[in-house]
Amino acid sequence: MQLEDMILVSVDDHVVEPPNMFDNHLPDKWKDQAPKSVKKPDGTDVWVYEGSEIPNIGLNAVAGRPPEEYNVDPTKYEEIRAGCYDIDERVRDMDRNGVLGSMCFPSFVQFCGQLFSKSKDLDTGLVMLKAYNDWHIDEWCGSYPGRFIPLSIPPIWDPELMAEEVHRVAKKGCHAVTFSEDPSALGWPHIFGDHWDPFFKACEDEGMVICLHIGSSSTMLGLKEGAPFDVLITMTPLNSMHAATDLLWSQVLRKFPNLQFALSEGSIGWLPYWLERVDYVYQQHRFWTHQDFGDQLPSQVARDHLTFCFINDRAGVEQRHLIGIDNMTWECDYPHSDSSWPHSPESVAKQLAGIPDEEVNKITHENAMRIFHYDPFAHRPKDKSTVGALRAEAGD
């Protein structure tokens, strides 16, 4: 397939929330209690919520900078690309990159809305969380129909409230929700009991995909005192391996046979061995560990319930049939330091070189459309959705 003819849908990007995000989504009586974007005396922009500061981190928004300038210093809005926080400029940057669709994870509220779970009054926290979801679905995604896959955050402190919010946002056309790869690391119950069942049932009922982003447990492998940061960056996909292993051996996927999870930013190269390993463990040990998957192997159950994505992972692409071609999706990771922007088409073409066109289409957009109930072609003709057509529209 020619690079210009590809259609790209990214299932993992990020938004740096704009300073005015709560203005249109809270009644007047709540606005004074909403998180505020504040410029400090040194010019740094931070969010302040209930007296606590939450900084913007440089690695969250380095798109457009050369690698020599990557760092984790707090940033100012004027020092990062406007596409990080301005929806019009985001779409222009997508066009420049030839990317049709994008799913955007949150930043300052943390991956699964942990910020609001720490509210002094959780009723207030719930109001703010709903306002965040309304902003994301109605304003960020709604400004350009067909260009975004809406993604909600849950009131993680109460599974019944989580279920209610799943049903509420589903009515608004949102079919994805974040959750923690390891909620016990955040101080909540682990997934091996029934604590989260109301949330899981609501997601199954609504066809809501649960997205487990690396780092959504607020822990990362490789964070040892004195260790180079390269260790952490190298080990990040193993967070997803850990999350997938917990899910598979728990009862969650057997109790909720239609429930779907996405391992966001988890890479794919580790999957062939992991799938082989879980089958070996099951066949070798199930009689004394008392696992029972009926007439299926664990690897089949994993493929039935899990979606995987990659930025740059030729090793995984070469073993795609061992992974499951229908479970693989692509991500851009704009505007983070791992992102391939603005050369994503060139990167994808290199990753998928020599692969049949029908498989390229599945990985680049068709799987994402099916899994996340996303239909960009209802808003934009397919021939206007290719890399070549979008870049021609961008004009620069």
The CATH architecture comes to Alpha-Beta Barrel
CATH class: Alpha Beta
* Uncertain parts: none
Number of domains: 1
CA-CA gap between termini: 23 Å
**What Rg is obtained from the alpha carbons, in whole angstroms?**
21 Å
The named CATH superfamily: Metal-dependent hydrolases
Shape, per Cα inertia axes: globular
How many separate helices? 16
Structural class, by secondary structure, is alpha/beta
Strand content: 5-15%
Report the count of strand segments: 10
Biggest sheet strand order reads 6-7-8-9-10
H/E topology pattern: EHEEEHEHHHEHEHHHEHHEHHEHHH
Helix content estimate:
25-40%
**Largest beta-sheet details:** 5 strands, parallel
CATH topology: TIM Barrel
Task: Describe this structure in a few short sentences.
The protein has one domain (3-394): Metal-dependent hydrolases (TIM Barrel).
Which descriptors apply to this entry?
396 residues, alpha/beta, TIM Barrel, 5-stranded parallel sheet, 3-stranded antiparallel sheet, globular
What features would you describe in this structure?
- The protein has one domain: Metal-dependent hydrolases (TIM Barrel), CATH 3.20.20.
- It contains 16 helices and 10 strands.
- It has helices spanning 28-31, 87-96, 114-117, 122-141, 159-171, 197-206, 229-235, 237-249, 252-255, 271-289, 298-305, 314-318, 320-323, 344-351, 357-371, 387-394; strands at residues 8-14, 36-39, 45-49, 52-55, 99-105, 176-179, 209-213, 261-264, 306-310, 328-330.
- Helix 6 links the parallel strand 6 and strand 7 (209-213).
- It is globular and about 65 Å long.
